[in-house]
């Protein structure tokens, strides 16, 4: 089989932790877009969901920081944060060590990826799962790109990581869904939390939906830091999803700034190739 | 180099209940294992989240440490704003304030 679904969404902890403080006129259509994303995911009847995330020092630290890592366990736990703070109950999330091992083996043919048989999910994965698989019953394969501790992997390599994941999915008999999650512009966990560069976000998502590889990978880190904040480094996760869908273009369903969530709320999907759709 | 060890202490406090217990039982003994500068150790001793921000602790580490120390969201943001006014710009790392720390949704 192959990739049966590919999308991207934001993951700010405020989406669950401070939901009531967002303007309902923006929050409700945002949650409706996430619900639509969940429905589209369910319609694709996936056997497993790969989440490309940018974790925040839940598992990986500067003593041994992988540029890319993929989980290889039969179960994971999360959230690592205080469940009352995040307002997501702590639980065990199913994985698939067998499928992970095959995916990792294939990805390794072109990208040197680390594997992890132990992984605690933080808000970067738990918040998307809370909206997309609210029963937490779909096997998850977590993938991480270091977006926090420089030096960071170049954007061109993030795109290649996505291409490698696609090749691996194409080689597996399972039906695999893919979600990329990270902020676009944002200055989280600073006094400026809530600052958002809406124009930059819209331009990034335009490039993403067009799957314009050279435009997506042309941002320098200095430009991203200046225009999109240190949170903008997380575009690597979204760029990887574009790489997994090279040759396809996408649609942006929602993107509006929600300052109390510290980022724009957004949801977008790639229209996968005709064969995948016919098989679905 | 001491910033690395300071962040490692907070990283481990955020994820390991045994380190949290050691912190509660004998804070000084735990601090001595990490060989922090006096300024860093004092910031931990006084629960000064704002000062830890100025010293360059990565925001994603500090956000959860602040929650664990009982700071509500608005208190945490305000602690960073107050420390910025008192001590000046963040000294290291990628979480520097912009525009003087103005704005933002508190």
Q: Would you mind describing this structure in some detail?
A:
The complex is a heterodimer of chains A (280) and B (106). Chain A has 280 residues and is of the alpha/beta class. Chain A has a single domain, classed as Protocatechuate 4,5-dioxygenase, Chain B. Chain A is built from 11 helices and 10 strands. In chain A, the strands form 2 sheets. An 8-stranded mixed beta sheet of chain A has the order 6-3-7-2-8-1-10-9, with helices on both faces. Chain A has a two-stranded antiparallel ribbon with strand order 4-5. In chain A, a hairpin with a 4-residue loop joins β9 and β10 (263-270). Chain B is an all-alpha fold. Chain B has a single domain (2-93), classed as Dioxygenase LigAB, LigA subunit (Protocatechuate 4,5-dioxygenase, Chain A, Orthogonal Bundle), CATH 1.10.700. Chain B contains 7 helices and no strands. Chain B has helices at 2-15, 17-25, 27-34, 38-45, 49-55, 59-68, 73-87. Chain B is globular and about 40 Å long. The chains are: A alpha/beta (280), B mainly alpha (106). Chain A binds chain B through residues 17-18, 56-58, 61-63, 80-82, 85, 120, 148-150, 187-195, 225, 229-230, 233, 259-260, 262, and chain B through 4, 7-8, 11, 14-15, 53, 58-64, 67-68, 73, 77, 80-81, 84, 94-99, 101-106.
């Amino acid at each position: 089989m192959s990739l049966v679904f590919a999308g991207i969404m934001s993951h700010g902890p405020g989406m669950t932790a401070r939901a009531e403080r967002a303007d309902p006129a923006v929050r409700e259509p945002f949650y409706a877009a996430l619900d639509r994303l969940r429905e589209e995911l369910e319609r694709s009847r996936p056997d497993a969901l790969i989440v490309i995330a940018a974790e925040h020092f839940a598992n990986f630290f500067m003593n041994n920081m992988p540029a890319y890592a993929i989980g290889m366990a039969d179960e994971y736990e999360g959230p690592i944060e205080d469940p009352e703070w995040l307002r997501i109950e702590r639980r065990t999330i199913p994985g698939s060590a067998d499928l992970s091992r095959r995916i990792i083996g294939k990805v390794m043919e072109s990208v040197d990826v680390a594997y992890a048989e132990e992984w605690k999910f933080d808000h970067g994965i738990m918040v998307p799962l809370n909206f997309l698989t609210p029963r937490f019953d779909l096997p998850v394969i977590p993938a991480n790109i270091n977006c926090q501790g420089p030096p960071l992997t170049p954007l061109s390599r993030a795109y290649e990581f996505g291409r490698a994941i696609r090749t691996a999915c194409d080689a597996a008999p399972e039906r695999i869904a893919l979600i990329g999650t990270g902020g676009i512009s944002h200055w989280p966990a600073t006094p400026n939390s809530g600052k958002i560069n809406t124009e930059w976000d819209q331009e990034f998502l335009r490039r993403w939906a067009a799957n314009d590889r050279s435009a997506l990978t042309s941002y320098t880190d200095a430009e991203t830091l200046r225009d999109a904040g240190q949170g903008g480094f997380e575009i690597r996760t979204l760029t990887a999803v574009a790489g997994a869908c090279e040759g396809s273009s996408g649609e942006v369903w929602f993107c509006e700034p929600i300052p109390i969530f510290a980022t724009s709320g957004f949801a977008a999907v790639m229209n996968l190739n005709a064969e995948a759709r016919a098989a679905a | 180099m001491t910033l690395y060890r300071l962040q490692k202490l907070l990283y481990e406090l955020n994820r390991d209940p045994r380190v949290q217990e050691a912190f509660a039982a004998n804070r000084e003994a735990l601090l001595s294992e990490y060989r922090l500068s006096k300024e860093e150790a004092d910031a931990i001793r006084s629960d000064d989240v704002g000062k830890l921000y100025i010293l360059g602790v990565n925001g994603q580490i500090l956000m959860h440490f602040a929650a664990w120390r009982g700071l509500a969201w608005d208190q945490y943001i305000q602690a960073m704003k107050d420390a910025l006014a008192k001590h000046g710009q963040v000294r290291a790392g990628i979480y520097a304030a912009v525009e003087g720390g103005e704005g933002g949704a508190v």
